[in-house]
Amino acid sequence: MKRILVATLALIAAATTAVRAQSLDDLNIQFHGYATEGFLYTTNNNIFTTSSSDGSPAWTEAVLNISAQPTPKLRVAIQGRYFLLGNFGNAITLDYAMADYKADDRFGVRFGKVKTPSGLFNETQDIDPSYLWSLLPQSVYPITSRNSLLSHYGGVAYGTIKLAPGFGKLEYRGWGGERVLGADDGYFVSQKESGLNLPNGLSGVTYGAALHWITPLRGLMIGASDGKDNQWNSAVTAGGGALSGTEVIKPLNTPSFFGRYEKDKLMVAGEFSRLPVNGSINFTGLPAEPIRLDDHSWYAMASYKVTDKLTAGVYDSQLVDHQAALGPARYSKDWAISGRYDFNQYLYAKAEQHFIEGTNQSYDTALNPGGLKPNTKLTILKVGVSF
Amino acid sequence: MHKRFLIFLSVAAAMFFVSQAHAQLIIANPSVKASEASKGDLKDIFTGASSSLGGSHVTPVLLKSGAANDEFLAAYIGKSDAAFMASWRSLVFSGQATMPKSFDSDAAVVEYVAKTPGAIGYIGKGSPHEGTKVLAGK
Question: Domains (ranges, CATH) in chain B?
């Protein structure tokens, strides 16, 4: 809350300084937003903490964005979101609140609460109107951790460097600040079910960099990013407060390699990322409980614009935890077939079919009392409106 | 017979060249230093990938709809109006840009571009464009 206040004040201060003696029209104040409603149905397991095997409409999002551009080089913007997915969210959160100064194409900087520009889709993973899929590949962009991974408190420096003729362009981004995994993040689902409570979630210093090479082959971009997080510590309780201690996550390194090729109506893309986590839960007087996972995740996707209004696509998304025991909980393999129809520039509908093998997803055991089945088919229908 | 064939060839060639000529004028505020812009320059500017042209900071200005708008998007951006606006919304919602100003008519675009340093827009080829400079293709 304090951070939000600081970010908002920074925003207002920046705007006020820059806009002296300007009219409201000069500020170019804009309001944009979108809202989506999703329906999930699974043949076996209840997924994403919804009752999806009965058919669940518990997936609602609404976003309001307010921005102003007091000078050609300075923008200020704030974006809030209502998010509900099963037992996740049902709250309004701040996507970002920032001031952006772009000196020229070669250098710009944002500060406040800002989106983290890692990977191929991290900055845009929440923007449902901007892509075909109902769900982005969950191996790399888990929706149950989206609010935590989307943005951080701090800053981003960015720019584009033109390379020698015939070598294309290089887009760079560097970021730093503090990341907060909220107490309701998907990462904590299994811990909560085993009676652990982290009232403040986890937080710590984060920094990283990304490079996108816009190659001379028109439509082809190749990139890499690497995010680093210092050690995270958080208070943890168990047994209704009878036990108290600390959860520690040792420094993280999350590399990602990706590429995208677009030509006319065709788009193909792929990404590989790794998330090695090493930590422990420490209660006074008890031996430390280790936390270890090593997720290797990748996806490959392709889409085709069949008509101006209809787009279709397919992806294969896979995740394997190399620290997990052999069995369905070690992996998740998800084939998805997707379609999107744009009625006009404001209203669209999506339909998506997933064929999921393995149970390394955000399942909670309380909603699957009979145990998890190794395979699930997931059908998603979604409508959205944006302005 | 030869004469008819030559007439046919001439008409066909004329139709070909007319279809290749752009039906829009690219106009800019006189403060913009550049006097020409390539298709790639314009695509970068109007998709938010670049905000400079020939050393000047530039800001794109759009038409809301109409034939000139559709033809410009087809010729320079390669997207339908819906897809074009969706890509701008993606930039707005990810915090990377502000939606460009858009206007209902060529006259309104010309008026805004003429009075706004760095503004760059497009209008139908026959429209008056007093107070702006026309950028040539390169």
Answer: 23-137 (3.40.190.10)
Q: Is B52 in the A-facing interface, judged by CB distances under 8 Å?
A: yes
Question: What pLDDT, on the 0 to 100 scale, is given for residue B23?
Answer: 74
- Return the residue of A nearest to B80 by Cα: A308
Confidence of residue A20 (pLDDT cuts 50, 70, 90): very low
User: Chain A: nearest CA to B7, how far in angstroms?
Assistant: 36
> What values do phi and psi take at B80, rounded to 5?
-75, 165
Name the residue facing B94 among A69, A115, A160 (closest C-beta): A115
| Residues of B with Cβ-Cβ distance to A96 under 8 angstroms | 95
Residue A5 has pLDDT above 70, yes or no: no
Question: Any chain A CB within 8 A of the CB of B16?
Answer: no
CA A56 – CA A191 distance, rounded (Å)? 24
* Helix, strand, coil abundance in chain A, percent, nearest 5: 15, 60, 30
Q: How far is CA B114 from CA B103, B125, B126, in A?
A: 14, 17, 17
Q: Does B74 touch chain A (CB under 8 A)?
A: no
Q: In chain A, which residues have their Cβ closer than 8 Å to the Cβ of B81?
A: 345
Question: Taking CB atoms and an 8 Å limit, are B81 and A69 in contact across chains?
Answer: no
Cβ B98–A67 below 8 Å, yes or no? Answer: yes
Q: What are A126-163's pLDDT values in tens digits?
A: 999 999 999 999 999 999 888 888 999 999 999 999 99
Residues A254 and A206: their CA atoms lie apart, in Å, by 11
Q: How confident is the model at residue A11, as a pLDDT?
A: 55
Distance between CA atoms of A107 and A117, rounded to whole angstroms? 15
**Residue of higher predicted confidence among A225 and A231:** A225
Could you tell me the pLDDT band of residue A243, with boundaries at 50, 70 and 90? confident
B86 has a chain A CB within 8 A of its CB? yes
Cβ–Cβ of B82/A345 closer than 8 Å? yes
> What are the boundaries of each domain within chain A?
2-386
- The string of pLDDT tens digits covering residues A300-339 is 999 999 998 999 999 999 999 999 889 898 999 999 999 9
Is the minimum CB–CB distance between B49 and chain A shorter than 8 Å?
yes
CATH topology assigned to domain A2-386: Porin (2.40.160)
Check if B90 contacts A (Cβ < 8 Å). Answer: yes
> How many Cβ atoms from other residues are within 10 Å of residue A347's Cβ?
15
Q: How far apart are CA A325 and CA A331, in angstroms?
A: 10
- The ipTM is 0.83
